[in-house]
Amino acid sequence: MTDGYSADTDQVAEVYSYYQHDVPNSMSDLDIAEQIIETFGVAPDPTDRAADHRLASYVDRGNRPLARGDVIAIDHRYYALTGSGTGLAAIARPRTAPTGQPLPPGTTQL
Prior knowledge:
The chain is of the alpha+beta class. It has helices spanning 29-40, 53-60; strands spanning 71-74, 77-81, 88-91. Strands 1-2-3 form a three-stranded antiparallel sheet, with helices on one face.
């Protein structure tokens, strides 16, 4: 069981997607997830000109930083964030919220 995400009651909405083409085969899902959390788990500094363009796009769409209960997908494998840092729990493919359904503040569906 994860903290913040329940497969029985929660649905997820895809809010951002990108392809990273140069991932070494030696990188584990945990390594990739750590990069995702480092990138999308913080509010951007608007004065930081070197900020990752993906974070700027994510935030410009109205999304908040990643938090406990959010789900990350890596090549059709799914992980729920369980707490601070990089706490992750592998989960089955989550149910997807229907397009057009009202979503919580800070969540903008693709």
